[in-house]
Amino acid sequence: MSLRRAAAAALAALGLLGVLGACAAEPRTPANPVVQPGLPGEANRTLSAEEASSAPPATPPNEADLAYARDMIAHHRQALVMTDLVPARGADATVRAFASRVADTQRPEIDMMNRWLRRNGQPEVDQHGGHDHADHAAMPGMASQRELDELAAASGADFDTRFLTMMIRHHEGAVAMADTVREDGVDVVVQEMADNVVVEQSDEIARMRGMLGA
User: Fold this and answer.
1) What is the pTM of this model?
2) Residue 45 — φ and ψ, nearest 5°?
């Protein structure tokens, strides 16, 4: 290759690098905007993708949100105490399958609520601790220790009837708690969790009533 052609090739290469550098330096086209919910009574705010990735939550959780997560963990935990009795005490295969579904749903929800508490600087709730009946007896739908003992002592069809009756009341309590935080809470994640509880457990209440023949 002649010196003239080599020099021309070198200049062309430098020009290409310059073009590539200029392209890299150009700002990227922003992605689709993100709508951030505003405070109650205020309009939503539209954020760019960059703003959305770095912005803090629009509304930090209030005490109603925090109390809901802590209380619902305890509420779910009692439901698991009840469902854990079903394989050995229940008689109806449909009731056993239903109890397994409740347990499979509520265990991950406990984990999710504990993660939410941790992200918001709160201690996790020990889901393997005691039943906390003295502390949580006032929560809607919670069974007393006597009712749990009677359930654990029952078997067969009597157990199935007791279980469904208690779990219907338990679910109704959870729906009431979710409705309360939907009115009093402000955190978007908690609102989504509460919405899910209302839809899911209302459907399960209807199914349990059908199993009871009500």
Assistant:
1) 0.71
2) -120, 135
